[in-house]
Amino acid sequence: MTVPAKIVAINGSERDGNTADVLRYAAAIAEKRGAVLEAIDLRTINMLRCGPCGNCNDRVIRCEQTDDVPGVVDKMIAADGIIFAAPVHGFGTASLMQTFIERAGVGYLRFDRPLSNKVAGVISVARRYSAGEVWAQLTVNALLNRMIIVGSGFPSEVHALHLGDAQQDEEGLTNVGRMVERMIDMIDLLNEHRRLTGRQELLAVGDRNERVGLPLNNLEEHL
């Protein structure tokens, strides 16, 4: 029995607005393909900012902040694919997504890059300006985590201002739908290759230790 592809979408918006509408559209596309897309709205979780401890570059274990971030990270690790979706605020990435990237990346993901070889997609939502810059930042973050980026031709940038405007951006939604379709295709290809070869790690990850001053064996002793 084939297990349906599981995609986790991280919604970095502070509102149940256009970004959420775009992800609901993406979820409908996934459902038609027999895949499951779960949107995690960062506005609904308890997420602390990076604390004043200042020992992130010396720690060899997970962040000790007590909030909901590790639960979200664990869902990402269990998924086949991940979508990062955020609106443009102040010509940059909305603050909730920026905080999550910092907390998740520094506190949980850089020890052994557990998102390596997962399929990634990126969506930015903007009135008009800086959609490309936010899309590029989130894309680079996915590459940092050694994920497999699936393109949609044109980037999945949706233009909207007032609530409901995203549903009117036909070209933007077309690119989102194409991206989701290609993510599912890639997930299916990777899973089939794993089944045929018995190899779980299809692409070499290499040295997982990217942290200056901490030898790999020091990390392995604590993970």
Automatic annotation (TrEMBL):
The keyword Cytoplasm does not apply. It comes from the Bacteria. Residues 6-154 form the NADPH-dependent FMN reductase-like domain. SUPFAM superfamilies: Flavoproteins. Pfam families: FMN_red. Keywords: Flavoprotein, FMN. InterPro entries: Flavoprotein-like_sf (IPR029039), FMN_Rdtase-like_dom (IPR005025), ISF_SsuE-like (IPR051796). PANTHER family: NAD(P)H-DEPENDENT FMN-CONTAINING OXIDOREDUCTASE YWQN-RELATED. This is Flavodoxin family protein. It comes from Kibdelosporangium philippinense. The lineage of its organism: Bacteria, Bacillati, Actinomycetota, Actinomycetes, Pseudonocardiales.
